[in-house]
Amino acid sequence: MFLKKNIWLIFYALLLIGLIYLVLSIFLSWNNIKNKSAEELTYLNRIFASSVTSTFDQQEIMLELLGQQLLSNKQYKNHKVTSHILDQLLKQNTSLIGFALSNLDGKLLAASSNIDLNKMPNLKQDNNSKSSFIRAMQSRKMVLGTTYYLPAIDSWVIPIRKAIRNIENKLVGVMIAGIKPKKLLPKLNELNANKGFQQFQAMLVHDDSFHYAYISGVSDISQVEEIIKNPIPDKIINFHQQSLRQQLNLSLEDVRNSLISAEYFAEGRDGEIKMYSLSYLADYKLWSIILVPKSRLFDQLISSITQYTITFLFVFSVIYFLFRYIHQFEQRNRKQLINQANQDFLTGLSNRLYLKYVEPRWVHEKASPFSVFFMDLDNFKNINDSYGHSYGDMILKQVAIRLLSIFSEKSLVCRQGGDEFIILCKKTSQKSLDEIASKVLNTISRPYEIDNYLFTIGASIGICRYPIDGENFDSLFSAADTAMYQAKNNQHNYFIFTNELKQQLDQKSAIEQALHSALQKNEFHMVYQPQIASRGALYGVEALIRWQNADLGFIPPDKFIPIAEDSGLILELGHFIIDQSIRDITELGKINDFYDLQLSINISVRQFMEFGFLEHLKSSLLIHKFPSRQLTLEITESIFIEDFDCMVPLFNEIRALGIKISLDDFGTGYSSLSMLRKLPIDELKIDKSFIDQSTDNTRDKAMVINILNIAQNLGLKVVAEGIEQQQQAELLAENGCDIQQGYFYSRPIKYKELEQYCSS
User: Fold this and answer.
1) Strand 108-111 versus strand 96-102 pairing type
2) What is the pLDDT of residue 644?
3) How many other CB atoms sit within 10 Å of the CB of residue 664?
4) I need a surface site. Which of 318, 350, 409, 750 has the fewest CB within 10 A?
5) Together in a domain, 695 and 627
6) Which of 664, 529, 658 is nearest to 603 (CA)?
């Protein structure tokens, strides 16, 4: 049920979860890219540092051995032999550019054939070589000089210098050579080309001067010269140090001392943020650096985002179409259910639920005037009772067809329920209403042929108009219903709602409003009409409620009881009647020793069907210690409109308590002999309408006598009400009527008067 009602809410929740998952996936992907890139750079830096160190270590050994050989026996003086030896070594060591031997004063003593000794400057005096030359003489390790461009061979050169000592450990010369920068990256280039590592840049930086000793990926000579000639700006160095501290909580000194590799983001010379892998080569006082632009990482991230987004869009496209299908399916089902709920299953017309649904279309500020026809079929119940409901249903179907043939598509024809129909029509003039009503009545009254039977029915129609007679459907239907009953009661075929009827409705509304506070204001009181046994003795009383309102005056029960039933106030009112009546008659019994005085209380259908009715009744009897055998509940035949089979067990339960049940207004409703046989009742109460003409009208007399005979045959007691003449009393007594009541004996009287009546 929740899924059906909240299908799109669930979709949006899933979409939100999906978006959160997408963002989280992108975030995790970025972290994964960073971590993977850091691992790659660490690996590459390790290879680069190892390659550089290995190359430098080999060159250092070679320079040491070569220097010792050239200086022994002053072999360097034989230039031809020396050049030949050095040239042969160059062929074997392709990473080198040339060899040279210098004395301690910086003058070259010998060199490979590709170096012109006469054109070479004094290494100790030249600004480009002076610093590294002196450091070489002071160090026992090979020293790298400042990288420079050698035009003679059109190549950049990383100069290396190794101090040579004799057997007495005395410094005797300096062996120098030049390394081709491209030869420092053979393994890295191979990895970069064949193993899927992202494009990177490698650098070597002098620790003492922060000059670049080597930088890959720059081919423009002028650009390289500019980079190598000038030290790295302090701003860049400080930024790197700050980045190290913020991201890794490390300093350059920490990296230098621990010989670890540090990976972090920092700004390069070009202002672009890059990921760096930084390590220190202690033997040669160099910083080994591998870097990749952050944009390359973003390229990978974009690729991942694209994949995630495509997957996300695909999945949620499928989910969306699935949910749309479910939604459309549910919409179709809902529409079908709404149509079924708003459609009368028998006639196919709209029903009362649909009227509530369309009310805003008909009733609003700018709505056009319209009329309401409330039609009730006359004596339709007789067809159901005589021929069965199947025949009645077929007639209702034909009535619906005939109504649809009369009214246009702009009108609305509905079945209210049973044999009642409501029509909304755009016509409002008196003439139009008269014509339509006459046409409807003539059409409905035409015979209906069903299974070779001909049926003729009539109809009563009540008509009202919007907005004159009401501003909403409830008030309009009430007005039309009132007009319909006016037509039925006055034996007119149709009746148009009038101001007089409106006053009646207003009175009904005023009564309903006053009812809500009447009990709290103690406006109700009980009266009691004596019931006389056949021998003239007092048998009991019938409890009757009366209402005197300060504004409305005296309101008879036939006016306010139906309103109380419709509004639900009958339940509270019923409790008052039961409690007050039992209290009064209990007290009366104590005062006058009328311990066997019978009490009859009228129970409405609504009250009888109330959950807890019987419990309240038993409680009241217990509180007042009133014997249940002295209590009679009067019910009307209308109660059997409810489920008959459900009524019988409740009747049996009431009778099991000793309480008697009387069937009031017998002969005016739905009773039948078969029903009387089945009903667990104790007495019949003949309606006043039969008593009135019983002495003058032969037919009514016969009816009364027949009722008395039926009751005697069924073992039921008979109560006749409305006795106003002695002749009536005698007729009833002669034919075995058990109990009589009416104005002939006494009008309904208040409790104090009843005390006096009982004492007389």
Assistant:
1) antiparallel
2) 65
3) 24
4) 409
5) yes
6) 664
Say which CATH number the domain at 666 has: 3.20.20.450
Q: What is the total residue count of the chain?
A: 760
Segment 315-361, tens digit of pLDDT: 889 988 888 888 888 878 777 776 667 788 899 898 888 888 899 99
Residues 433 and 535 in one domain: no
- Same domain for 623 and 480: no
Contact 211, 231 (CB under 8 A): yes
Given the structure tokens 């038993």, which residue do they identify? 618
Backbone angles phi, psi at 310, to 5 degrees: -60, -45
* Rounded distance between C-alpha atoms, residue 530 and residue 742, angstroms: 8
Q: At 56, list the tokens.
A: 């430098």
Residue 455 lies in a domain: yes
Per DSSP, the three-state class of 201 is strand
- How many of the other CB atoms lie within 10 Å of CB of 38? 18
Render pLDDT for 670-690 as a digit per residue (tens, 0 to 9).
555 666 777 788 998 988 888
Question: From start to end of 388-477, where are the E strands?
Answer: 412-417, 420-425, 448-450, 453-455, 458-466
630, 619, 622: which is closest to 585 by C-alpha?
630
Q: Which two tokens stand for residue 437?
A: 């009503």
**DSSP strands (E only) in 534-623:** 538-549, 553-555, 598-602
Answer yes or no: do 365 and 487 share one domain.
Answer: yes
- Which pLDDT tens digit goes with each residue over 511-541? 988 998 898 899 999 999 999 997 788 899 9
Cβ neighbours of residue 385 under 8 Å, at least 6 residues apart?
Answer: none
Q: Which residue has the tokens 């006096």?
A: 756
Shared-domain flag, residues 442 and 536:
no
Domain containing residue 490: 350-497
Sign of CA pseudo-dihedral 219, 221, 222, 223: positive
Burial classification of residue 192, based on how many CB atoms lie within 10 Å of its CB (0-12 exposed, 13-18 middle, 19 or more buried): middle
Each residue's pLDDT tens digit, 590-604: 876 666 889 999 998
Tell me whether residue 695 is in a domain. yes
Q: Are both 589 and 703 inside the same structural domain?
A: yes
